[in-house]
Q: What sequence folds into this?
């Protein structure tokens, strides 16, 4: 699956790596600042 | 079969990483949010203390605003939390909250606080370490009130008797200034409540 996704990315290795880092960073930021705060209020952890 | 196993494995990897990240968020991310709120609340409270000295009325404040500063010497000199008015999820994200309708600091009745045990800077994480006779210092707008721990107990979450003016005695008229702190128990769970009771032992001029 990862190999398939890697092949679909445009450009050479450097550009692909940059795109992967960018997308991963965006996903982590989205989780950290939007999804997790919403989810945390629904988890009964005290 | 082998292909299915591989795909399942490849899907589980990011799911596991997201779960780990969420755990990190609960432990540290929520704490950072509370610490930001606390800096603002404590600064505002300090301004009120400096402006009004000990002459400020001890009356209730708006929901979500700082009511008093809580310190517990057993937890170290750095332990200080601004207590906010209200115990809803939004208020408890900012710090320990004062149950609306219960006594104000130093007043006759039961001054009841609730706080998180493991998330949002975990203000009441170490409540189980308190022992009989430990001081709980509450800097209110009008004065400093020192309570002394009298006992601790573990109750069910729906046992609201602990927030009565006289804990455990609904309808009884209070004859002393009491304090009750509640938090989730055990850690990482909300199945029970850990409750610490205290009684007011002295009132002092607040030294800002």
A:
């Amino acid at each position: 699956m990862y190999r398939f996704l890697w092949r679909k990315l445009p450009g050479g290795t450097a550009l692909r790596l940059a795109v992967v880092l960018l997308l991963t960073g965006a996903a982590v930021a989205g989780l950290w600042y939007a999804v997790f705060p919403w989810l945390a209020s629904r988890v009964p952890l005290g | 079969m082998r292909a299915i196993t591989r795909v399942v494995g490849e899907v589980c990897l990011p799911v596991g990483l997201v779960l780990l990240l969420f755990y990190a968020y609960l432990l540290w991310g929520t704490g950072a949010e509370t610490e930001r709120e606390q800096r603002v609340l404590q600064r505002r409270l300090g301004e009120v203390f400096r402006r009004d000295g000990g002459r400020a009325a001890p009356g209730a404040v708006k929901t979500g605003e700082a009511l008093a500063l809580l310190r517990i010497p057993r937890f170290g000199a750095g332990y200080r939390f601004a207590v906010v008015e209200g115990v809803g999820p939004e208020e408890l994200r900012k710090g320990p909250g004062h149950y609306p309708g219960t006594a104000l600091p130093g007043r006759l009745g039961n001054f009841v606080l609730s706080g998180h045990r493991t998330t949002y800077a975990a203000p009441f994480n170490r409540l189980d370490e308190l022992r009989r006779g430990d001081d709980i210092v509450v800097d209110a707008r009008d004065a400093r009130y020192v309570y002394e721990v009298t006992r601790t107990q573990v109750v069910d979450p729906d046992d609201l008797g602990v927030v009565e003016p006289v804990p455990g005695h609904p309808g009884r008229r209070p004859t002393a200034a009491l304090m009750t702190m509640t938090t989730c128990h055990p850690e990482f769970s909300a199945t029970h409540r850990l409750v610490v009771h205290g009684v007011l032992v002295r009132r002092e001029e607040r030294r800002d």
Remarks:
- Chain A touches chain B through 14 residues (CB under 8 Å).
- The radius of gyration of chain A is 16 Å.
- The longest helix of chain A spans residues 13-40.
- Helices of chain A lie at 2-8, 13-40.
